[in-house]
Design goal:
84 residues; alpha+beta; 2 helices; 17% helix
């Protein structure tokens, strides 16, 4: 994430993660680069960059961990939710 944000050349950028309804497959998680933060955003400061999560998505993200993994099939973010 540090490399991605650095390549953008804007020190005010953050990563936004969000949850969308996914129909039969359940929830879908998304990530975008964001410059603006909303008034109701939760802000997680990693020390190197900020992660923004809107209040509705936070209900579904609470307790989750986000990891970036590199596998044979490519690289991606993985979200792990604790059991309910």
């Amino acid at each position: 994430i540090n490399d991605i944000l650095f390549d953008e050349g804007n020190p005010n950028l953050s990563i936004r993660t969000f949850v969308q309804g996914g129909g039969c497959g359940g929830f879908q998680y998304g990530f975008v680069i964001e410059e603006e933060q909303a008034e109701d955003d939760f802000i997680l400061d990693t020390g190197s960059f900020k992660v923004l999560i809107d209040s509705m998505s936070m209900m579904y993200m609470d307790g989750a961990t986000i990891d970036y993994v590199e596998e044979l099939m490519g690289s991606s973010f993985k979200i792990k939710k604790p059991p309910s």
